[in-house]
Design brief:
Strand content: over 45%
Order of helices and strands: EEEEEEEEEEE
Number of strands: 11
Largest sheet: 7 strands, mixed
Structural class: mainly beta
Radius of gyration: 13 Å
Helix content: under 10%
Shape: globular
Distance between the termini: 40 Å
Length: 125
């Protein structure tokens, strides 16, 4: 049974930093692209970072580029999201997700077949 467990979300002030972690159980982590997504109340779930299965390639939307960094430790089955210079607009539930395919490109949200339960990040002004 695949399980993704996020942690690290909390209330912070604008300008602060946070690091989210996601530990994966029950899947060949080292062969799966991973992603971090977020969903604010009343909004769609959007990707904020993707990382290839090897860790060699990453992608970010313009909204977080230069502030967020995704990384992975395949030995620990863990993917991280370092978030710096947080803004109130970053407030959301953050989810990690794993590609449903082995060695896949995970090019769209539909590529991700396994999801964590989410962790709340709240940024106050």
């Amino acid at each position: 049974q695949v399980q993704l467990v996020e942690s690290g979300g909390r209330l912070v002030q604008a300008g602060a930093s946070l690091r989210l972690s996601c530990v994966a159980y029950g899947l060949p982590f080292g062969s799966r692209a991973m992603g971090w997504f977020r969903q604010a109340p009343g909004k769609e779930r959007d990707v904020v970072a993707r990382i290839s299965w090897s860790g060699a390639s990453t992608w970010y939307p313009d909204s977080v580029k230069g502030r967020f960094t995704i990384s992975r430790d395949n030995a620990k089955n863990t993917v991280y999201l370092q978030m710096d210079s947080l803004k109130p607009d970053d407030t959301a539930i953050y989810y990690c997700a794993a590609d449903r395919e082995t060695y896949g490109a995970a090019s769209s949200i539909s590529s991700f077949g396994y999801w964590g339960q989410g962790t709340q990040v709240t940024v106050s002004s």
